[in-house]
């Protein structure tokens, strides 16, 4: 065997030093889910920086000829006995600090490892020791050590997320705050809101000394927002919470900076209004203590995670846990459920013709379904292996998959918590875009919705259909069956100041009430009827035009209050194990029923605006053809601005004001809420008779940039042209259109002039075929649900329960156990499959 030095010198030219843009895949095998903790460790190619498990590295070497690898192994250290309560149980130490991974804060599971990195030369797997490197030339030592240091740059405490919510910055207003000399002096106790007479959660504005109540919390408690409203009226930015003032400090909030802040001159600012900070005592919970109490939500966390009971760990095929990569529980829960669906299981065999996305989806499917990684995690403290298996597994850590599905997305590319429903739709969209040919597993969830709008004045109807993947069920809080208990519990909660140890009482909403809220006719006011050519009242009824093989139901727990403050509805819903939606099947146009004419509303013109056509842009006074009543409508800019500030698309806001005749914010808001699901909701406003309507955009006016973007996605220029012409040259709509008309595009015969044969004969496009959907009986059975714990989708934790061979199983990241009491009433997303008749 040749000397190590000679071998290393022979491969030196293939060893690259990682550049700032290079990613060294030192945590996951490119072909499997092997990692440095796996048996045999991980081999990282020192040229491509791809990682390979011990069972694949020889194959990669044979195909590429690459010989130099970093061999990384990690061994988990034994944890010291920290008096923890075991798997699935909340920590016994009550958090005293609003922080994660910091002493006194919320606990995180923190695995510590011993890591070893060596250079190995294939095919003989010769190891290059530090002594061998010492005898090498400087250039050799520097190149090898640069690679080693890059691979060893991560902390041995993997994926530890630390966050301290009590770190506050000095307010920019504190140093030179101008306080009014208005003679106001504040007593040391007995404070009341000067507007509503509330006696708790009182804040004093440090500019004028006004005593006002704080914000209303997501659950309706707290104050009435009078301190915030005062800031909006006066611009006075800083307030202090009375009742939290002690010689050590107080809660200070800057409305202008929208955050809790520090005020280094607080004693001076308080003394201005007669408050001696050194004699004050704390009489109310601080904002930190309130947030800790809210985030603990012991009742919800314990019930959903089935804490307090000894859960039996489960291992085997289809029972593989997924490591939490830092707030990735939303991804873990959704993917566990999706790979229970046969359509996704059948597509879990990668092919050389597939895209990178399809390959990684198949790789994830194999990792979850094979059972290869569903083994008990080794316990470093149990050297003889005599103890019972723990709940957590070796599992898989889908780092490459998470990076791929989140690439380019403003939210899913981060380590922040996300909405599981939004991720499900994002993933389905990626599946749609990567299944141009062959079977599409997302068709298992695709269905058609029919909306029937009936003008109450003419009794004529309008039918529209749209594609959807999720049924969103509203939560009618007024239908709670335990209203009396809720009122008594609210009174007790106020008396006890929100004692978190008190039992949680939730509103109990019948599932039938949720379905009734979905299916009952919706009253549309200010509906513009083409039959009577004016605004009138109409009813909108929503029904299923097709029933999918698998039905997803979202409980709309996350909503907005009257003050647009996000809140989560803490409700219990008796979701059934079986579901029959046959009565909600759409029937289409009824015999003898007349349809509303396809006529758009007339353009809006204010009385003081003279119609001048488009003269001055393209023509002259003698050219009457250039006069047109179809000018851009005069819209109320203030109403449009208000709607845009709420987060709605500009074009949707313009259409809302246009179709409601400039009648104000309320009418426009109602229009938006009733048209949010329209396919062209955010499309540009197209006036009736305008030549730039859908399907009539001339080829020569199409954006070359838009054409190039669609062509770069793998479509032909003719196909891109057809999509843009069908969607008024709007890129986002064109992309959605092209993916929903793949069958039509695959068979289209477009001439060199950019027009199809059908267009040449008929003068315009034939109606595009509808999307491909599966249909069948509307009877379903529940097989999985995803639950959320926490106060909003941007925080908290997700788990899922899946029915496997008549046994409910809880998937809580790496922990997979038999479920004893599946909390079906507290779910967020429910998954049903069709019952075979």
Automatic annotation (TrEMBL):
Pfam families (UniProt xref): UBA, UCH, zf-UBP, zf-UBP_var
Gene Ontology BP terms: protein deubiquitination; proteolysis
A Gene Ontology term for the protein's cellular component: cytosol
Signal peptide: none
Domain USP: 320-835
MF terms (GO), sorted A to Z: cysteine-type deubiquitinase activity; zinc ion binding
Keyword presence, Protease: yes
Keywords annotated in UniProt: Hydrolase, Metal-binding, Protease, Repeat, Thiol protease, Ubl conjugation pathway, Zinc, Zinc-finger
UBP-type domain location: 169-277
Biased composition (Basic and acidic residues): 487-498
EC number(s) per entry: 3.4.19.12
Active-site residues per Swiss-Prot or TrEMBL entry: 329 (nucleophile), 797 (proton acceptor)
Binding site for Zn(2+): 193, 196, 213, 226
Record-stated family: Belongs to the peptidase C19 family.
Protein's name in the database: Ubiquitin carboxyl-terminal hydrolase
Species of provenance: Gasterosteus aculeatus aculeatus
């Amino acid at each position: 065997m040749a000397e190590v030095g000679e071998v290393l010198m022979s491969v030196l030219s293939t060893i690259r030093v990682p550049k700032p843009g290079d990613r060294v895949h030192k945590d996951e095998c490119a072909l499997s889910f092997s990692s440095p903790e796996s048996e045999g460790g991980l081999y990282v190619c020192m040229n491509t920086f791809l990682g390979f498990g011990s069972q694949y590295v020889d194959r990669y070497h044979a195909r590429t000829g690459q010989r130099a690898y970093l061999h990384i192994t990690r061994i988990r250290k034994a944890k010291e006995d920290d008096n923890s309560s075991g798997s699935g149980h909340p920590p016994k130490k009550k958090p005293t600090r609003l922080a994660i991974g910091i002493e006194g804060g919320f606990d995180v599971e923190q695995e510590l490892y011993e890591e070893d990195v060596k250079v190995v030369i294939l095919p003989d797997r010769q190891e290059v020791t530090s002594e061998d490197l010492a005898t090498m030339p400087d250039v050799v030592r520097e190149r090898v050590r640069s690679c080693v240091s890059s691979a060893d740059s991560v902390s041995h405490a993997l994926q530890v997320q630390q966050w301290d919510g009590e770190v506050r910055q000095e307010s920019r207003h504190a140093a030179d705050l101008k306080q009014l000399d208005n003679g106001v002096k504040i007593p040391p106790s007995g404070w009341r809101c000067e507007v509503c007479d509330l006696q708790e959660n009182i804040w004093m504005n440090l500019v004028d000394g006004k005593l006002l109540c704080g914000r209303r919390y997501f659950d309706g408690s707290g104050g009435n927002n009078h301190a915030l409203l005062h800031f909006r009226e006066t611009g006075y930015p800083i307030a202090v919470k009375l009742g939290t003032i002690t010689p050590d400090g107080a809660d200070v909030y800057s409305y202008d900076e929208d955050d809790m802040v520090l005020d280094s001159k607080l004693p001076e600012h308080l003394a201005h209004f007669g408050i001696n900070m050194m004699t004050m005592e704390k009489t109310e919970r601080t904002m930190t203590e309130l947030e800790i109490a809210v985030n603990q939500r012991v009742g919800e966390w314990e019930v959903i995670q089935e804490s307090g009971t000894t859960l039996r760990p489960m291992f085997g095929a289809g029972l593989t846990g997924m490591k939490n990569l830092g707030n990735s529980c939303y991804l873990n829960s959704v993917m566990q459920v999706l790979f229970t669906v046969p359509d996704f299981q059948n597509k879990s065999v990668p092919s050389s013709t597939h895209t990178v996305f399809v390959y990684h989806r198949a790789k994830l499917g194999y990792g979850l379904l094979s059972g290869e990684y569903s083994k008990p995690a080794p316990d470093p403290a149990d050297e003889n292996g005599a103890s019972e298996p723990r709940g957590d597994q070796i599992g898989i850590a889908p780092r490459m998959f998470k990076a791929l599905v989140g690439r380019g997305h403003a939210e899913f590319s981060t380590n922040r918590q996300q909405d599981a429903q939004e991720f499900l739709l994002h993933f389905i969209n990626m599946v749609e875009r990567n299944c141009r040919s062959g079977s599409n597993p997302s068709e298992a969830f695709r269905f058609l919705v029919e909306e029937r709008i009936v003008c109450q004045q003419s009794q004529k109807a309008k039918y529209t259909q749209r594609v959807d993947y999720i049924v969103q069920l509203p939560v009618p809080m007024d239908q709670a069956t335990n209203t009396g208990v809720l009122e008594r519990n609210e009174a007790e909660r106020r008396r006890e100041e929100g004692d978190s140890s008190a039992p949680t009482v939730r509103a109990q909403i019948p599932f039938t009430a949720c379905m009734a809220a979905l299916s009952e006719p919706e009253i549309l006011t200010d509906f513009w009827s083409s039959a009577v050519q004016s605004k009138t009242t109409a009813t909108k009824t929503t029904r299923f035009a097709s029933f999918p093989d698998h039905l997803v139901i979202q409980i709309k727990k996350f909503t907005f209050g009257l003050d647009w403050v996000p809140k989560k509805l803490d409700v219990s819903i008796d979701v059934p194990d079986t579901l029959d939606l046959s009565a909600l099947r759409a029937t289409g146009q009824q015999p003898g029923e007349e349809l509303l004419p396809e006529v758009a509303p007339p353009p809006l013109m204010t009385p003081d605006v003279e119609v001048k056509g488009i003269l001055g842009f393209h023509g002259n006074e003698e050219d009457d053809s250039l006069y047109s009543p179809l000018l851009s409508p005069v819209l109320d800019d203030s109403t449009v601005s208000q709607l845009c500030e709420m987060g709605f698309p500009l074009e949707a806001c313009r259409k809302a004001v246009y179709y409601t005749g400039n009648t104000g914010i309320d009418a426009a808001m109602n229009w938006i809420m009733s048209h949010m699901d329209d396919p062209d909701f955010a499309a540009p406003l197209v006036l009736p008779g305008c030549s730039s309507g859908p399907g009539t955009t001339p080829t020569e006016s199409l954006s070359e940039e838009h054409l190039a973007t669609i062509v770069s996605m793998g479509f032909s220029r003719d196909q891109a042209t057809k999509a843009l012409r069908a969607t008024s040259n709007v890129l986002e709509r064109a992309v959605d259109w092209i993916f929903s008309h793949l069958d039509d595009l695959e068979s289209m015969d477009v001439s060199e002039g950019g027009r199809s044969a059908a267009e040449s004969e008929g003068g315009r496009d034939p109606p595009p075929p509808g999307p491909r959907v599966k249909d069948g009986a509307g009877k379903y059975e529940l097989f999985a649900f995803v639950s959320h714990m926490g106060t909003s989708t941007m925080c908290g934790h997700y788990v899922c329960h899946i029915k496997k061979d008549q046994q409910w199983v809880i998937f809580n990241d790496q922990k997979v156990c038999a479920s004893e009491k599946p909390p079906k009433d507290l779910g967020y997303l429910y998954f049903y499959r069709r019952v075979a008749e």
